[in-house]
Write a structure and sequence with these properties.
This protein is α/β, with parallel strands linked by helices and about 300 residues long. It has helices at about 40-50, 90-100, 105-115, 135-145, 165-180, 190-195, 215-220, 265-275, 285-305; strands at about 5-10, 15-25, 30-35, 55-60, 65, 75, 150-155, 180-185, 200-205, 205-215, 225-230, 245-250, 255-260, 275-285. It folds into two domains: about 5-220, Rossmann fold; about 225-285. A six-stranded mixed β-sheet has the order 6-7-8-3-9-10, with helices on both faces. A hairpin with a 2-residue loop joins strand 1 (about 5-10) and strand 2 (about 15-25). The longest helix is centred in the C-terminal third of the chain and has 19 residues, at about 285-305.
Amino acid sequence: MALEVDRLRKRFGAVQALDGVSLRVEPGQIFGFLGSNGAGKTTTMRIVLSLMRPDDGTVTWDGRPAHAWPRRIWGYMPEERGLYARMAVIDQLVHFATLYGVTRAAARKAALDWLARFRIAEHAGRRLETLSKGNQQKVQFIATILHEPDVLLMDEPFVGLDPINVKMLRSALLELRDRGRTIVFSTHQLEQAEALCDSVAIIDHGRIVTSGPTREVRRSTGHRVVRVAMESGDAGWLGEMEGVTVTRGGADYTEARVAPGVDPQAVLRAAVRRGPVLRLEVADPSLEEVFVELVGAIEAEEQTLAPGAGA
């Protein structure tokens, strides 16, 4: 019962928004769709939900065309809020749930439970426009999930949330995943994807740059990261080693990128020889580092191939 996007293409005038986008989301996963603004994330989601037609390509859920499934299996949280600003919070939550066949009594109970969980139960009778942007975002999330969709698609769900509310939303998403929901969210906040996602895809200018399980994507560049803290506070010597580039220096620790083919253990052995050592760590690059490296390489290549480049 996977969600499969196959070779989607979409053009808006002179702009090729999607250029052969393909990805697969396994059931019961949290999947991160990562990219800069304008990369094609929202267009892809709208095509999945049949809110927009592709020029070419297909979308299926469990082998059937996505548009053939009842609307109630989908939950969609757009980046732009789609709620009624002057309507009471509880009234519109009940309203949206009943559109999917939920009884008013069940919708009201579930809505009040979620409002309490997100610490905004006292706002149930207030008009949405009187709430802070972060609390409006939480109401939008509740409206998206009250009918218990099988597949949840969210466009930049963490925008406008402070760290406490981000933690609440993370916890809710993990719970929904553990209850068997399939969750796809787009974001350019890569630390959120790294904390939550089983798998990710990076999209740039309408093309998938890389995709797969999060750990495999983090290892896709071939680089490793080492972090070394010396009692002397000085680990600048890392930059003198072949294939090692210092990316962060500081009194607490030094971080360096180790090129493919260079054994990170050689760095650690060198640190032990120089000792005393307070911290030694080998890690995969972060998603942010992978994103910058892969997307940056594509942009550099495009500039090189552009007409007149280097002239």
